[in-house]
Amino acid sequence: MNLNKRQFIGAGAAALAATTLGRLAHAQTGYPVRDINAVIQWGAGGGTDVAMRGYAPYAEEALGRKLILTNRTGGAGAIGANFVLQQPADGYTLLMGAEPQALFRVMGLADFDYNEFYPINIAAIANTILLVARPNAPWNTMQDLLSHVQANPRRVRQYMAGQGTVPFTVNTMMTSLTKFETIMMPFDGDGPAITSLLGGHVDIGFIASGAVIEHVRAGRLKALGVLSDKPFQGIAPMTDAPSLSALPKYLPWGSWYGVFVRKETPDNIKAVLVDAFKKAGNNPQYRSMMEGRGTTMLNLSGNEAQAFINRWQSTTAWLYHAAGAAKVDPATLGIPKP
Fold this sequence. Notes:
Layout: H1 3-29, E1 36-40, H2 47-63, E2 67-71, H3 78-85, E3 93-98, E4 117-126, E5 129-133, H4 142-151, E6 157-160, H5 166-177, E7 183-186, H6 190-198, E8 204-208, H7 209-217, E9 222-226, E10 255-262, H8 267-281, H9 284-292, E11 296-300, H10 302-323
Parallel strand pairs: 1-2, 1-3, 6-7
Antiparallel strand pairs: 3-10, 4-10, 4-11, 5-8, 5-9
């Protein structure tokens, strides 16, 4: 083979190698090359939906692509989470999730929880939870409601979401301390329940302040108490009712909102998403919106986010176990006591 032919072949091989390496580099650094689907586990208008739809535009700025948000409700969030698990682990399907998923195995709802996902970002925790009532309700305080419920068991209609949700958990706290028998009205998240409260079809509900505070301020809903031992924006703490004075042993507690991908997603794609959502979480407009709704910003990712989930899971799983609400002993799942 003469020198020119060797040079030609060598040049061709070099060009092919360069093209291959270029494609690999693009695969590593070019993500995302198209818009990204994001699945919200809960219905429109609820706490998770409001938090994630407010979050998305700032993440889009950092990613340079649109996030196509879709609500997939049902099964206390298991329907949406399972859908994401069935999609390729390529970073093009995100889960915009909330706290109930941390309890799927404890409550027997699914054979997975967040152990199958990687936490891109835990944006915020709604640790200000209000007990709200329809606007024309005859009660003005927590004690008013308790006295009425205890004198008229199973007459008051209470909003109830799936196991592991805010309404379920706060009701569990209540019933561990005092008699509280109501009619449970099931809804797929806060949004539909708020609509029914506004229309007077449901009497009361435990809901994170972010989803209802504007309705309370406008007089469309009545706030009877806040899950705390301190007042919030003029709303009295639930502990003002003597039988609920022990509530602080469960606190602070609240729902939280975050973004996840399948655990098998390549590290370089995870890194791009972590960076984008970290920037979104630092956006002053987003922080102002969330904090104005009584939500505490966290902006945690990776190991910090996982540690946060583990702590929350431990506290809540063992609360359920002590109250007899857990379907599976947390110890058998390797969940340590808090």
